[in-house]
Design brief:
There is one protein chain. Helix 4 crosses helix 10. The protein is an alpha+beta fold. Strands 2, 4, 5, 7, 8, 9, 10, 11, 12, 13 and 14 form an 11-stranded mixed sheet that branches. A 4-stranded antiparallel sheet has the order 15-16-22-21, with no helix packed on it. It is globular and about 80 Å long. The protein has 10 helices and 25 strands. The chain folds into 2 domains: 305 residues, 3-Layer(aba) Sandwich (Rossmann fold), CATH 3.40.50.1110; 104 residues, no CATH class.
Length: 517
């Protein structure tokens, strides 16, 4: 990354002072968070008195020496009638058509960023006259230091605008809004091809005890970068002299010399970090929101520290956004690539099992997409079921609809019974079944179909396909090739085609493994 590029980016990320202005998230058509203290912030001249009003709520403050100001408006209930946000200082700003409802941050990589227009669902777009759903899509910002604001604008959901909405976010919001009547605001803040480290601050990655192996690599990379910078100084200094001479002579400036790539940039192999945090998360802090929707993991498919990283990331987000129980609902990766007939093949089974283990983090929920994938497309088009399954978690936990079943069967325990292994599950809902799902149609029970994609191994760690039978709320797994089993896997490959354990509520069992080999 060239010095001139870094300088330009830093300049672009710093707002100029003068007239009273608001952060870009506070704009026409916005949905702002109901029922919580509402931070509102912006910039003006240093030491300027600022008054902010939204509905009956008013707050006053004085700008800091750097011109930044922030107030916290008192909590207000949801409203479907537009409000006006007014900010007054030396000048006055009015933002119209503001709704109070629930704001959900939609983050992760390309499957969250994937737009509704790419889902081959023209009927959903045509029916998207949903004025109580609004969407804010952030523009990509690779920032070397924490930015102060994001670029983007709010859009009301209509057949003309919906195709640009995050598809997962759209189907989530459509489900939530229909069930509750509450306005829903989606802030899509996702970038394709990103690993989880890119959404964390450098400080968190360097100083979280459970991430010491990664921090060690980071420090080594930073040391190497410093050495490369030192070696580059003579060429940079010569270029500076030549450029000044060319400028004085009114000649074109020479091309700059090769500049060492910052080791945590967007195009650099692991370890990499901080850039998207700086440009996409830092400028939103401390936005009030109802929760987070997260679809990410493909870029961490071989990561053995994914649980630790997500735990650290979420703890920092909850601190920064001043919400210690911030709901965090995430997607377990869909099937991808050609199926494998090798029972020992793990592939994405490892990352999916780590995603399942992330349910140990308080106030989280997981929507499995294992039955929604497409062998040749890492971006499955069926985002409708993904959004609806995420909505089940929110309806159950946030909107007090306990009649909803939020999840398919989740591995709880393994017990060895002679030559068989008995698996106990949580989230069995109305019972365990074998079923098949085709497209967006509901899963259909197949009573005479045997369970597939269970594998079993003994102490020799040799895997064999197993016979698996539903017995009440459990599954009994066995194989004549494994007389003394010690471990079981289910749907543990990148594409476990044929995996067919569901609950009667139509939700697939999560892939799992009981070993750590």
């Amino acid at each position: 990354m060239k010095l001139i590029c870094l300088t330009a980016l830093m300049t672009l990320s710093t707002p100029a002072l003068a007239d009273v202005r608001l952060a870009s998230i506070f704009a026409e058509h916005a949905v702002l968070q109901r029922d919580r203290p509402l931070p509102v912030w912006g910039w003006a001249d240093p030491n300027e008195a600022v008054v902010v009003t939204l509905g009956p709520a008013t707050a006053k403050t004085t700008t800091a020496a750097d011109g930044r100001w922030m107030v916290h408006l008192a909590p207000q209930p949801a409203t479907t009638q537009p409000l006006t946000l007014t900010v007054s200082g030396k000048n006055s700003v009015q933002i119209n058509d503001i709704l109070l409802g629930d704001v959900w941050l939609c983050s992760g990589q390309s499957n969250m960023d994937w737009a509704l227009g790419g889902c081959q669902a023209p009927e959903d777009i045509a029916a998207a006259a949903l004025p109580l759903i609004r969407h804010f899509r952030t523009e990509y910002n690779f920032a070397s230091t924490p930015a102060t604001t994001v670029k983007g604008q709010w859009a009301v959901c209509t057949p003309d605008t919906a195709s640009n909405f995050s598809a997962v976010g759209f189907y989530f919001a459509r489900t939530i809004q229909a069930a509750t009547g509450v306005p829903v605001g989606l802030v899509t803040n996702a970038v394709g091809g990103t690993n989880i480290e890119l959404w964390m601050s450098q400080d968190i990655l360097l100083n979280t005890p459970s991430l010491k192996p990664y921090a060690r690599q980071m420090r080594e990379s930073l040391d190497t970068y410093q050495q490369q910078l030192s070696a580059s100084l003579p060429a940079i200094e010569q270029w500076t002299r030549d450029s000044r001479a060319a400028q004085q002579a009114d000649r074109p400036l020479p091309m700059p010399p090769a500049w060492p790539e910052y080791p945590f940039g967007e195009r650099v192999a692991r370890p990499r970090c901080v850039t998207l945090h700086n440009g996409h998360i830092a400028p939103l802090i401390p936005m009030a929101m109802r929760g987070v929707l997260w679809y990410q993991g493909e870029s961490n498919a071989d990561d053995t520290l994914y649980l630790e990283k997500k735990s650290a990331m979420l703890a920092s987000w909850r601190q920064w956004f001043q919400h210690e129980s911030l709901p965090f609902y995430f997607v377990q990766l869909a099937a991808f690539e050609k199926p494998s007939d090798d029972p020992a093949n793990l592939g994405w089974g490892s990352i999916r099992d780590q995603q399942r283990r992330c349910l140990t983090i308080p106030h989280t929920g997981m929507a499995s997409a294992i039955d929604l994938g497409e062998a040749d497309d890492i971006h499955p088009k069926n985002k409708a079921d993904v959004g609806a399954r995420l909505a089940l978690w929110a309806l159950t936990n946030e909107y007090q609809q306990p009649e909803k079943i939020a999840s398919g069967p989740l591995f709880r325990d393994l017990k060895i019974e002679g030559s068989a292994a008995r698996i106990t599950f949580d989230s069995i809902g109305d019972g365990l079944i074998t079923a098949r799902k085709i497209g967006r149609a509901p899963a259909v029970e197949e009573k005479n179909s045997p369970l597939r994609r269970f594998a079993i191994a003994g102490a020799d760690r040799q895997w064999f396909w197993a016979t698996a039978v539903i017995e009440g709320a459990t599954v009994l797994v066995s194989s004549p090739d494994v007389p003394t089993p010690v471990a079981v896997r289910y749907a543990c490959s990148t594409n476990p085609e044929g995996a067919n354990l569901y609950n009667r509520n139509g939700l697939p069992a999560s892939p799992f493994r009981t070993d750590n080999w």
